[in-house]
Amino acid sequence: MEHSSLWKEEDSLHPKRLQEAFAKAPPEEIRHDLAHMFRALGDPTRIGILLALRDGEMCVRDLGIFLGVSESAISHQLRTLRDLYMVRPRREGQIIFYSLRDCHVLQILNVGLEHFLHEKDEKEASQ
pTM to 2 decimals? Predict the structure, then answer.
């Protein structure tokens, strides 16, 4: 992140920490792309597709059956996921199979799921 010209060291309560934050922050373009990826994960159909692909590739028809939506709707969501480098296609004749693009996508899903289930368990335990 570019060092803001709008701040002065004496304005900050913790200038050393602020300098560290500036030094480690990714460029604005990367922050924008990351926010776009997380917005995409906010759609239940797209999350369902990614979760279904955790254990291996699936074709559009089977993803539609699994999620209870049309093949057209699945294809539309897969286009978004492809554009975000989250899934990759593989053609076999007339059938296109999709899989998670790499281990990072799987890690994002697993950490998110683990976090949610952990918080849910803690909430239930405290009731």
Answer: 0.78
